[in-house]
Write a sequence for this structure.
């Protein structure tokens, strides 16, 4: 059971000219088993929403609420949110020099579960998760994301998604920069995660391409920090045909 | 009349103490050093025997001898004091410790010279010469612990084709003062790995310098330091490319924490006209863990010939990378643990490069112990 509820969310960032409001009243409810796609043009605030959910210090919530199963998420620190069951697959995963993938994954798993994973099964689990996204298990001994190609970084995000097994996954433009093979591999990973049942997925994307592989239950069009239109998967088809033009010109 | 010390890229040394007036702190080579805390080493503090007790553990096949101060091996590295403390230590040393790796001996085990300070009441002067004869291979660790006021000259001589690792491990107690001058002469096709690790001590100032005695020589200088509250750790490096086709690679990494922690890194490289086809790179990185620290990092590169393979340097000083911490924390890892991972990661590659297995665990444990003082508190 997991419900992520976002109500009238206003978020601003500090700029040289003072605070600038990016999100201007976002309402969104993701129930378990549901996949929501958020689509929108560049600069519409999609990534801001993703980072705000996971608690990036750059973003200030000025009003509104985010709750996970009724519990106030905004009161939680970044790591508390992750331990509560939120996961963010990042558009630009960060390199952490000198920290091996295996050490990182084990430390994260220990933090999420509150106890260290059993050594024997853990190594198998890690290798299996890497195999499933066609990542050479030699990556386990490399430093986190260091020297990884764009596609390898995204696959590494999916490995984490599968191993950490959150309640709600936020995927921030996980499809960007991927070739078609990598896109399929990443999409299959997300679909496996969904099949576990009870999982919420918030899929943020600029393109409709990934929605051919991951079928959303709901599509929200994001423009100028707000949801401009909502619908089912057919809305994605319409965006594919017509683009964002009508929303952008309406917003101006 | 003193020596011309305006350029540390063209140092002119002298064995005559009269050529080295007492520094005022205004000199280029002294401007970062807290002279008042040197316990008179730079001035006229008397030296006495017994300031450190030397316990040597020679690996099988390596000879450790204690010779008189006039032993002919002294000076064979080409070391000529370029500052007053080195000149004073040269004059005052009453003996020479010689570590000799015989020709063609390949020694797997590590030779350890353990220097245990007996107190900071009197200053000590010491002289060590490490000679790796032709085509030999060995590892020598100079370990400094306890408390002392010590000035020493350490000469490292690599004959043709020798492969030597020298680790200088400053694991001093908090009140120790150590001024060390370590000079290497690298023979034809010889390879030196010089490692300096500084954790303890009140003031630690080390000169590590290298010159070449023929083409094809290579030096790797690795350094790792952790400057705590009030601590001054200064590493002054100079690689003098005096022969063609030689290589040098310098990587020093340090972390600083606590009020008044001060790290200084001077990375000098001179490529002489004769040194065609050489390759050099030097890098210094500082990680600032708390407020109130200062890191000075000065790379200098002087090139007298353009006919080289490559020359470069990098220097970076920064705080924790917020993006790294956010990424780790977004995976459920608590903030203190995330910081711990980042600091261990910062040093990990370097520890791996040192390549002395018996030291690796000790260095990681020391990093952990240093972290417990601030980051994990």
């Amino acid at each position: 059971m997991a419900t992520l509820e976002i109500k009238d969310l206003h978020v601003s960032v500090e700029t040289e000219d003072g605070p600038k409001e990016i999100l201007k009243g976002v309402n969104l409810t993701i129930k378990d088993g549901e996949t929501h796609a958020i689509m929108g043009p560049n600069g519409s605030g999609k990534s801001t929403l993703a980072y705000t959910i996971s608690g990036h210090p750059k973003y200030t919530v000025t009003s509104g609420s985010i709750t996970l199963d009724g519990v106030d998420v905004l009161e939680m620190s970044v790591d508390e949110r992750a331990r509560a069951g939120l996961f963010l697959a990042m558009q630009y995963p960060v390199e952490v020099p000198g920290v091996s993938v295996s050490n990182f994954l084990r430390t994260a798993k220990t933090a999420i579960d509150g106890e260290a994973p059993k050594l024997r099964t853990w190594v198998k689990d890690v290798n299996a998760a890497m195999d499933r996204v066609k990542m050479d298990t030699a990556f386990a001994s490399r430093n986190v994301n260091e020297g990884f190609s764009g596609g390898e970084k995204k696959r590494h995000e999916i490995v984490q998604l599968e191993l950490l097994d959150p309640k709600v996954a936020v995927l921030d433009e996980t499809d960007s920069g991927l070739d078609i093979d990598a896109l399929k591999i990443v999409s299959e990973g997300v679909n496996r995660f969904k099949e576990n049942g009870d999982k919420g997925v918030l899929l943020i994307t600029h393109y409709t391409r990934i929605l051919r592989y991951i079928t959303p239950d709901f599509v929200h069009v994001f423009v100028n920090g707000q949801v401009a239109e909502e619908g089912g998967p057919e809305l994605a088809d319409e965006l594919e045909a017509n683009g964002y033009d009508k929303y952008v010109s309406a917003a101006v | 009349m003193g020596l011309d010390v305006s350029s540390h890229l063209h140092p002119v040394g002298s064995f005559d103490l009269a050529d080295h007036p007492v520094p005022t702190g205004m000199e280029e080579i002294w401007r970062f050093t807290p002279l008042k805390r040197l316990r008179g080493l730079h001035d006229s503090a008397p030296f006495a025997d017994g300031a450190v007790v030397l316990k040597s553990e020679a690996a099988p096949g390596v000879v450790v001898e204690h010779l008189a101060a006039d032993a002919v091996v002294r000076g064979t590295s080409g070391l000529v004091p370029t500052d007053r403390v080195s000149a004073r230590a040269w004059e005052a040393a009453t003996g020479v410790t010689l570590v000799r790796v015989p020709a063609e001996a390949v020694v797997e085990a590590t030779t350890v010279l353990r220097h245990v300070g007996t107190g900071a009441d009197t200053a000590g002067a010491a002289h060590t010469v490490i000679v790796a004869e032709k085509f030999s291979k060995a590892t020598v660790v100079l370990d400094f612990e306890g408390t002392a006021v010590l000035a020493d000259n350490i000469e490292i001589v690599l004959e043709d084709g020798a492969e030597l690792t020298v680790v200088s491990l400053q694991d001093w107690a908090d009140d120790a003062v150590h001024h060390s001058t370590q000079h290497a002469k690298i023979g034809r096709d010889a390879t030196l790995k010089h490692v300096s690790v500084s954790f303890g001590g009140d003031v630690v100032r080390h000169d590590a310098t290298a010159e070449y005695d023929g083409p094809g020589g290579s030096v790797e200088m690795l350094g790792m330091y952790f400057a705590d509250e009030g601590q001054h750790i200064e590493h002054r490096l100079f690689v003098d490319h005096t022969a063609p086709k030689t290589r040098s690679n310098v990587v020093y990494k340090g972390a600083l924490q606590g009020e008044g922690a001060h790290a200084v890194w001077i990375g000098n490289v001179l490529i002489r006209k004769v040194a065609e086809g050489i390759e050099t790179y030097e890098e210094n990185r500082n990680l600032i863990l708390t407020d109130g620290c200062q890191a000075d990092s000065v790379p200098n590169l002087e090139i007298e010939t353009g006919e080289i393979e490559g020359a470069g340097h990098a220097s970076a000083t920064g705080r924790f990378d917020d993006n790294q911490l956010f990424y780790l924390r977004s995976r459920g890892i608590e903030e203190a643990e995330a910081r711990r991972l980042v600091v261990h990661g910062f040093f990990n590659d370097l520890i791996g490069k040192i390549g002395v297995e018996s030291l690796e665990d000790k260095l990681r444990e020391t990093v952990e112990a240093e972290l417990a003082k601030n980051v994990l508190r």
